[in-house]
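HOLO CASE FILE
Compound: fe (ii) ion
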Amino acid sequence: MTRADIIDVRGLSLSAASSAAVERFDALIDDIYYYRLGVQDRLDALLQEFPEFVLAHVLKGYSLMTEGTLDAHPMARAHLLLAEALPANPRERLHQEALRAWLAQDSSARAAAWEQILVEWPLDLLALRQHTGTLFWTGDKRHQAEVTAGVAGHWGRETPGYGHFLSAHAFAMEEIGLYVVAERCAREALALQPQDLWALHGLAHVFEMQDRVREGIDLLSDAARFLNDYNLFRGHLWWHLSLFKFAQARYDEVLDLFDREVYPKSSTFYLDVQNGASLLARLEFQGVDVGLARWERLAQASLRNATQSTLWFTSMHHVMALARSGRVSAVQSTLDYLSSVGTGSTQAALAHDLALAGAAFYQDKPREALEWMLAVRQRHGELGASHVQQDLYDQIMVMAALQLGDLPRVRQLLKARLTTRIWDAATWQAYEGRSRRVDEVHDAAAARAALRWDMN
Ligand SMILES: [Fe+2]
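Model generated. C-alpha cells follow.
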C-alpha cells in the first residue's frame, strides 16, 4: 500500500495509507476525549490493519503511558520504536519526541515538544489534550491555562471537535479561579454534546468551588442516566456527586455511592484509588464508621499497584489504604520504591515525603504526620490534581492537629485551606466571612464541621 500525506478533520497533514484510515483515526481521537468505551480495541485494530500509521503508534504509546504504571512502559516503548522507524512529517516527529520524553519521565521535554506542536499547529487536538492533561498532573495550573488560552483564538464553532477545546479550556480556567469563563465554556461544550464528561466535570468543579451544592447534585444526578455508558473516568464524576452529598452530610448516600459506583470492586486504576481512599478518609474524619472491608478493597489494589505507580499524586492514597488496613511491610515497600525513584525525580521524592506523613497519620503518629506535611506545605501542589483533590492534604493536617489538641494550629490550617478559593475581590469577601467562622472553632466537633464546605 502506498503512503501519502493525507489531511485530517482539522486540516493537519498525516502520514497514513488512506483517507479511510485517517477518518477512523479522527473518530478515535473524538471518542477518546469523550471517554467512550472500546476505543483501545479499535485503535489496536487500526494499527493491525495499517501498521505504518505513525501517529496511531504514538497515540497508542500515549494511551499506555496515561495508565500511569511502570508495567505499561515496555509496550509504549515498542510503539515508539515502530513509529520512529517510519517516515514522518515534522509534527509527527515532535509527537514522537513527546512520547520519548514521557518514557524518560522528563516532563519538561515532553511539555516542550507539545508546546512546539501547538505553536505551529494550534489545532492539533491530540497535542492540546495530552499537554493540558499531563500539566494537570505536574501541578502547573498557570501553565495549563496558558496553553488553552494560547490556542483559543484559533478555535471556533466551525472547527471540528470544538467541544474538546472548550471543555479543556473550561477546566483550565476553573483551576485558576476564572469561574465565569469556565462555566460559560463548559456549558457551550455541553450544548454541543450533552454527554461530554470532561465539560460536565469542569462545570462540577465550578459548582464545587462556589459551594453550589444543589446545582452540583442536580447536574450529576441527571448525568447518572448515562455515566455508566462511558469508560472508567466516570468514577471520578460519581466521586464529585459523592462530595456534593457529603457537603450536605448525607453520609449513608455517600457510602451507597461508594459501594455502587465510586469503588464497587478492587480497581488499580489511579483515579479509582484516589477517589476511593480520599472519600473513605473524608468520611472517617467526620466520624462516619466506614468499616474495614472498604479499606481492604482498596488495599488489595494497592498491594498490586503501589510500587508500579508513576502518577505520584496516587502514592499517598495507596499508602493510606495499606496503612489503614495494617499492611506494614507493603507500606515500607511503597516508601522504598518512592525513595529509590525519588533520587532522580523531585516529584517522586515529594510523593515519598507525603506518603511517609500519610502512613504516620494512619499509624497513630499525628505529631510526625503534621510535622512532615507542614515541612512541604507550599509544595503539595507539585504532585498535581485539582484544588478539591488536594484538599485531602489539608484535611489530614487538620485532623492530626486536632488529635494533638492544638486548636490554634487547627484554626490556622482551616484558614490556610480557605485561601484555595480566593481569586478576586468577591471571593476575598467570602473568605473574610468564612475566616471569622473559623475563629469561632473551639472544639473538635466544630473543626470537623468546618471541613465540610457547606459549613464554611
Ligand atoms: Fe475532579
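CASE NOTES: The first helix runs from residue 19 to 33. The chain has four domains: 4-121, 140-262, 263-387, 405-456.
CLOSED: yes
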